[in-house]
Amino acid sequence: MPQMSPLMWLTLFMLFSLLLISAMIKIYFMNNKSIKLNETPAMGEKNNNKIWQW
After folding, report:
1. 3-state secondary structure of 17
2. In total, how many domains does the chain have?
3. What is the pLDDT of residues 6-35, one digit of tens each?
4. How far apart are alpha carbons 53 and 40 in whole angstroms?
């Protein structure tokens, strides 16, 4: 198996980190949707639908 260059490892690590961060952000917004719904019901529903589709 050929050895991977440091640049390739860095690229893979960055991609994995971005995926992990995006997943955490999605979960964070899903948990806080009730707070948004209390502020503005219409906007909260729209944001919730966007998160589920995303």
Report:
1. helix
2. 1
3. 999 999 999 999 999 999 998 888 887 755
4. 20
